[in-house]
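Protocol step 4 of 6: structure prediction from sequence.
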Amino acid sequence: MHATHADGRELDLLAEAGARVCACPTTEANLGDGFLPVERLLHRTIGLCIGSDSNVRVDPLEELRELDGIVRRQAGRRDVLTVDALLSIGSDEGAASLGLESWPSLEIDLSHPQLRGVEEPLCALVAGCSADVVVAAS
């Protein structure tokens, strides 16, 4: 469900129903639909995942960065969402929104040029890598 323009009562109903909201930050920005009130969702413990409903090429890491940027601009500060929270939005919450217990295992290619020499690969993954660094587990 989208909730970009949901008011407080509608968000309360979503929380009561145990619903999850799928954020499509790039699509919403491109269409000028507004920005999802992420902090208001999280405050109500509404599950949040990412997706897209109009992009030809979707890079989930780019979507997470766009979502993080939206939250920072709304809050006027950094570190509203932790790396772990962003990764959960991009994985665990996405699987749960589809009724799955988890996604199939993935691996990060630590030898990929985007990660070579990086000390904290998960931070780098969220901060600037493309989905090319993620490979199916063998």
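Step 5 (inspection) to follow. The mean pLDDT is 87.
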